[in-house]
Amino acid sequence: METSKITRVSTPKKPVPAVKDVIARALRHIGAYQELNNMEQVQAVIDEEMCINCGKCYMTCNDSGYQAIEFDPETHLPFVTDSCTGCTLCFSVCPIIDCIKMATRTTPYQPKRGVPISPVC
To answer: The 4Fe-4S ferredoxin-type domain covers which part of the protein (predicted)?
Structure first.
C-alpha cells in the first residue's frame, strides 16, 4: 500500500444545512410582477480606460440576440447603443471588475423587435 497518495479533505467552515432547512427560504423575496417598478431601467456603461478589448461583452450581447454593443471602427473599443435592454449579460462576462457598470437609463427603453403588424391587402 502506497502512503504517498494522501487525499486532503477540506471541511466546511460552517455546518452544511439540511435540505429541509433550505426549502422555501427564498419565498419571501418572490413577489408579483405588478410589484416591480418598470421605471427603474438600467443599461450598460463601459469604462474605456479599463477595457482590455477582449470582446467578450460584444460576443455575449450579439450571441444572445440583442446586438446592443458595437465597436468603434477607429478606437476598436466597445460602446453601448440605445437598444441595450439592461440584461446584464455583458456585465457578467467581463473579466475586468468595474469595467462595465449598470447605470439608470436616461431615456425609457423602447423595444424594437419582432415583425411589425401590417395588413395583408
So the answer is: 42-74, 75-105
